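Field log, afternoon session.

UNIT: design team B
ACTIVITY: writing a sequence onto a fixed backbone
BACKBONE:
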């Protein structure tokens, strides 16, 4: 029995992944290397420019980023997981940067849920990897906060706007 528990513990422990070991392609034909964000908080948001009612969140995400850019990076993950993100990466980039003034990093369009989820969302959804929680991304503009040490510390529903006090408090607390 003890041997079984030890093997189970080692398997679980071996699954833990540091977010700083992950990277993903960006819309500029480069990559977003999370190792570059040691010491900064990271707000990860699955976005959708086809969801016009929610696009006010892009404006607020940019404001939040500008207000906190010494200690926070916002990273957008455009996704068609909920049927609202059409267009190519170039079109998404043009709309996000041109129309909404986004200056924070934008990952390439990818899936954020299910077996096809990108590597970052696999990390966010698995307690075995992130050591905090199992999570499902259920809507566009769901947000995850990672603290300056790389720990997943909070999740916010899409109904919580970026400038909401809950997000501001979490950024200040962690």
């Amino acid at each position: 029995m003890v041997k079984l528990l030890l093997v189970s513990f080692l398997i679980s422990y071996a699954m833990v992944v540091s977010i700083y070991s992950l990277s993903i392609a960006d819309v500029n034909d480069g990559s977003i290397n999370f190792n570059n964000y040691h010491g900064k908080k990271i707000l990860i948001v699955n976005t959708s420019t086809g969801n016009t009612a929610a696009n006010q969140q892009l404006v607020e995400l940019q404001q939040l980023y500008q207000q906190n850019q010494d200690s926070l990076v916002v990273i957008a993950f455009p996704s068609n997981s909920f049927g609202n993100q059409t267009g190519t990466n170039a079109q998404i980039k043009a709309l996000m940067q041109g129309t909404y003034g986004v200056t924070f990093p934008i990952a390439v369009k990818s899936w954020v849920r299910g077996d096809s989820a990108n590597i970052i969302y696999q990390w966010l959804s698995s307690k075995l990897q992130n050591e905090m929680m199992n999570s499902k991304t259920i809507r566009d503009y769901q947000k995850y906060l990672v603290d300056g040490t790389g720990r997943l510390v909070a999740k916010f529903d899409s109904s919580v706007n970026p400038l909401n006090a809950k997000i501001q408090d979490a950024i200040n607390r962690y």
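LOG NOTE: Residues 50 and 84 are 5 Å apart (CA to CA).
NEXT ACTIVITY: expression trials, pending approval
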